[in-house]
């Protein structure tokens, strides 16, 4: 794997998801090294952009999650530094990190996503309950890993949920609650070559797929491929790929989906343009279902690293 040159694995960072990123990055680093890649760790929270340039990496694998790593800001730095990188470019990452703008673009493409409202300190929370109905979900639109999210069952609880989400963002996303089963779809590739991996069903304890159940317990169960009719599976995969292309994503991503119990209609929730690569993560699980090991997945993603603005080939 010397042809891939000197590789930096970027992980850690300054976001609220730092702990998860450290787990992802250490896994990717070990996997690449096991395949003979000259891989080196780099934590942007501890080292400067000047040091990143001084390392003279031939390419980098981005294993950062959340702000300053998944939101386009780092991608812009790497473009300026002329360092090819994995995953989507500046625009796709910035839009994908913003759940509100993601939903707006998906809606223009006719892609089903739950109804929503954007809240600020002046919003009428009582009217909100009348318009969206209860229960509803309140969340910060720029966070991941279920950070700052509340399921609101009663009008009296909306203010508390808003206050929690507003700790993380200037505005808050209120979203229609979809009663049904939860799934996720990993996507690899670019443009017309992008394709979906097998759909995974997530069965969390009492339906609570929170931060703890995502990363630190074995109580959540996953079924891959998901036990769904073939036609519904194909519909979900096509929706996910269409949504990925609509944002001009590339390399890899993961899209979260809910299938409404009442009519089996799928709704796309959000996209992760730098998905987790921990021992509990779902992209490696989906890859394994088609015979691709964790190590091979990391190498394949690394091979797609390129500069997007200049159009440099990987």
TrEMBL record:
Binding annotation for Mg(2+) 1: 256, 270
Class in the EC hierarchy, top level: ligase
Cofactor note text: Binds 2 magnesium or manganese ions per subunit.
Residues making up the signal peptide according to the UniProt record: none
Keyword match Zinc: no
Cofactor: Mn(2+); Mg(2+)
Principal place of residence: cytoplasm
UniProt KW keywords: ATP-binding, Cell shape, Cell wall biogenesis/degradation, Cytoplasm, Ligase, Magnesium, Manganese, Metal-binding, Nucleotide-binding, Peptidoglycan synthesis
Subcellular location: Cytoplasm
Domain ATP-grasp: 103-303
Pathway field: Cell wall biogenesis; peptidoglycan biosynthesis
Entry-linked Pfam families: Dala_Dala_lig_C (PF07478), Dala_Dala_lig_N (PF01820)
Amino-acid positions noted as binding Mg(2+) 2 in the UniProt annotation, renumbered to this chain: 270, 272
GO molecular function terms noted in the UniProt entry: ATP binding; D-alanine-D-alanine ligase activity; metal ion binding
EC code: 6.3.2.4
Family: Belongs to the D-alanine--D-alanine ligase family.
HAMAP family: Dala_Dala_lig
NCBIfam families xrefs: D_ala_D_alaTIGR, PRK01372.1
Protein name per Swiss-Prot or TrEMBL: D-alanine--D-alanine ligase
Record organism: Undibacterium rugosum
Gene: ddl
């Amino acid at each position: 794997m010397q042809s891939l040159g000197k590789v930096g694995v970027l992980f850690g960072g300054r976001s609220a998801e730092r702990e998860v990123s450290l787990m992802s990055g250490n896994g990717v680093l070990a996997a690449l090294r096991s395949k003979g890649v000259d891989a080196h760790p780099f934590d942007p929270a501890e080292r400067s952009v000047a040091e990143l340039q001084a390392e003279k990496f031939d390419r980098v694998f981005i294993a950062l999650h959340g702000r300053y790593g998944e939101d386009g800001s780092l991608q812009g730095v790497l473009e300026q530094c002329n360092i090819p990188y994995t995953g989507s470019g500046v625009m796709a990452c910035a839009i994908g990190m913003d759940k509100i703008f993601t939903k707006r673009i998906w809606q223009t493409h006719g892609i089903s996503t739950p109804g929503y409202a954007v809240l600020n300190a002046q919003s009428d929370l009582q009217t909100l309950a009348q318009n969206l109905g209860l229960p509803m979900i309140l969340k910060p639109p720029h966070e991941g890993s279920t950070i700052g999210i509340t399921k609101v069952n009663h009008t009296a609880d909306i203010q508390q949920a808003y206050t929690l989400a507003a700790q993380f963002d200037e505005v808050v996303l209120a979203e229609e609650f979809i009663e049904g089963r939860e799934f996720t779809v990993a996507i690899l590739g670019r443009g017309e070559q992008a394709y979906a991996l097998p759909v995974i069903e997530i069965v969390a304890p009492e339906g609570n797929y929170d931060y703890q159940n995502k990363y630190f317990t074995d109580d959540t169960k996953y079924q891959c491929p998901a036990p769904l009719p073939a036609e519904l599976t194909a519909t979900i995969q096509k929706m996910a790929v269409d949504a990925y292309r609509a944002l001009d994503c590339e390399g890899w991503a993961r899209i979260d989906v809910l299938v409404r119990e009442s009519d089996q209609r799928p709704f796309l929730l959000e996209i992760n343009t730098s998905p987790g690569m921990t021992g509990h993560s779902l992209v490696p699980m989906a890859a394994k279902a088609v015979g691709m090991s964790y190590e091979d997945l990391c190498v394949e993603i690394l091979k797609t690293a390129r500069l997007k603005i200049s159009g440099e080939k990987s």
